[in-house]
């Protein structure tokens, strides 16, 4: 948008008892911003409630953590309606509209109700669950109808698209064609996979920046001899598999005593959604487990785990990635996971590190050269960590080159261009990327 211009519309980040009707509108460069405040109660039920305590756990296969509160759902619909009404006066003829993520599924329905004829696309950044899970949502039919109201619906992976197709065919008696054309609830639309990627050159240049190098050197100075660093960077979220990761690390230290004193794991977990009780719980579990692990395995001159519960700038993170022999990305379920691709792009081509990656992260389909693990099988993850730490340089280079090539082939520009081509209805509709 910075290059081509357009309108970015969304929540301002502010809530109040009596928010103004009209959005704040301002321009920076070629981009116009339209931002609305939300009523405090609506926001809590819409965002903290339905978005983050119903849809987020459900779509990540955590039925055990999902709550189905009817007033949350009512607020979800109301806020989407409010977004659509505030957006309407800002739309111009010829606009195409691209809606992002699970907080905004009803937007096409609301916009169509207001008479908007523009082409509207939707991209889901998180997984789409198997129908048996989706069906537990009391409003599954309404949300699926909302999705069918878009012209283009985009998913991260073939698995997400397959689960959605199964739902369309078996629950809505719809039809799904090989080219992604779907018919259901009286609507015809296109659904496809558009794996999101990163701005590779940006990450490469950040990782070589003075700031990144300076921060990495500071860490290096605390690691005597050839001690190796492993790194994990995730929002502190129960989908990211942090407990299982720490258990696997403990298993490594227990089963491979030669690795003790040789390795340090730096786990950076940025605080996230702290008002949601399940996030407080995962934080307490991680704190307990970290204390346990360091208590049992630390020695007077070596501490195995550095657990940091603060966010860092992306530039600094790239410096940490570059100096880490192993990148650990082991979510239990993840739409794509960009940290994995950033780890790859930040490596030194002459001496790259190894990526240990969950098969349940969308990017496992892209990053073939990673060591792929089942994060629930902590024994196997421990063995894989040992293999990663012992991997000869030639194999590390070979694996990294393959990962770097596919990261480039599936970068953020490819993602954007493919989605927008399909949304515009260009004739040469893109094939699904691999
Ligand atoms: C959702 C889906 C999907 C910067 N500082 C920190 C930090 N960052 C940056 C990372 C990365 C981004 O935040 C995190 O992106 P992820 O993709 O890893 O994960 P989610 O936030 O869960 O994003 C995901 C994504 O949307 C895009 O479609 O890939 O599956 O869940 O760019 O550099 N990240 C963390 N700590 C920091 O201090 N964790």
Can you tell me about this structure?
The protein has 434 residues and is of the alpha/beta class. The protein folds into two domains: 6-196 and 413-426, Rossmann fold (3-Layer(aba) Sandwich); 200-409, Rossmann fold (3-Layer(aba) Sandwich), CATH 3.40.50. The protein has 15 helices and 15 strands. It has helices spanning 40-59, 70-87, 107-113, 131-134, 140-148, 158-171, 200-207, 210-220, 242-255, 277-297, 314-323, 338-345, 378-390, 393-409, 412-424; strands spanning 6-16, 24-28, 31-39, 96-100, 119-123, 152-155, 175-176, 181-184, 187-193, 228-235, 263-270, 305-308, 326-329, 354-358, 371-373. A six-stranded mixed β-sheet has the order 4-5-6-9-8-7, with helices on both faces. Helix 10 (277-297) links the parallel strand 11 (263-270) and strand 12. Helix 2 (70-87) crosses helix 3 (107-113), helix 8 packs across helix 11 (314-323) and helix 9 packs parallel to helix 10. The longest helix has 21 residues, at 277-297. The chain is globular, with a radius of gyration of 23 Å. The model has no long low-confidence stretch (mean pLDDT 96). Bound molecules: GDP-alpha-D-glucose.
């Amino acid at each position: 948008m910075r290059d081509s211009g357009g309108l970015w519309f969304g929540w301002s980040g502010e809530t109040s008892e009596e928010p103004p009707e009209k959005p704040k509108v301002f321009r920076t460069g070629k981009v116009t911003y339209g931002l609305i405040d939300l009523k405090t109660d609506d926001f809590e039920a819409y965002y903290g409630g339905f978005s983050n305590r119903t849809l987020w756990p459900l779509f990540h296969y955590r039925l055990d953590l999902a709550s189905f509160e009817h007033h949350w759902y009512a607020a979800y619909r109301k806020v989407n309606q409010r977004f659509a009404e505030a957006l309407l006066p800002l739309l111009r003829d010829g606009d195409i509209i691209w809606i992002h993520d699970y907080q905004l599924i009803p937007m096409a329905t609301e916009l169509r109700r207001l008479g908007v004829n523009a082409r509207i696309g939707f991209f889901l950044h998180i997984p789409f669950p198997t129908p048996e899970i989706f069906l537990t949502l009391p409003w599954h039919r309404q949300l699926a109808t909302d999705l069918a109201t878009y012209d283009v619906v985009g998913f991260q992976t073939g698995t997400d698209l397959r689960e959605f197709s199964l739902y369309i065919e078996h629950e809505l008696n719809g039809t799904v064609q090989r080219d992604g054309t779907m018919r259901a609830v009286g609507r015809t639309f296109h659904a496809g996979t558009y794996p999101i990627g990163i701005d590779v050159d940006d990450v490469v240049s950040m990782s070589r920046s003075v700031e990144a190098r300076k921060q990495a050197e500071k860490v290096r100075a605390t690691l005597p001899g050839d001690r190796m660093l492993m790194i994990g960077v995730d929002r502190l979220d129960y989908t990211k598999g942090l407990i299982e990761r720490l258990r696997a690390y403990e298993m490594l230290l227990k089963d491979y005593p030669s690795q003790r004193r040789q390795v340090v794991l730096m786990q950076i977990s940025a605080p996230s959604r702290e008002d949601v009780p399940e996030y407080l719980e995962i934080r307490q579990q991680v704190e307990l487990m970290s204390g346990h692990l360091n208590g049992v395995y630390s020695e007077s001159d070596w501490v195995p785990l550095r657990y940091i519960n603060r966010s860092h700038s992306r530039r600094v993170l790239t410096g940490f990635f570059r100096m880490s022999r192993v990148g650990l990305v082991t979510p239990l379920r993840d739409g794509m996971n960009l940290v994995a691709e950033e780890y790859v792009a930040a490596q030194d081509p002459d001496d790259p590190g190894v990526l240990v990656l969950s098969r349940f992260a969308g990017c496992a389909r892209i990053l073939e050269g990673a060591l792929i693990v089942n994060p629930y099988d902590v024994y196997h993850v421990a063995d894989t960590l040992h293999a990663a730490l012992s991997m000869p340089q030639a194999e590390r280079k070979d694996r990294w080159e393959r990962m770097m090539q596919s990261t480039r082939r599936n970068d953020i520009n490819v993602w954007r261009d493919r989605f927008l081509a399909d949304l515009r209805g260009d004739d040469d509709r893109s094939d699904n990327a691999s």
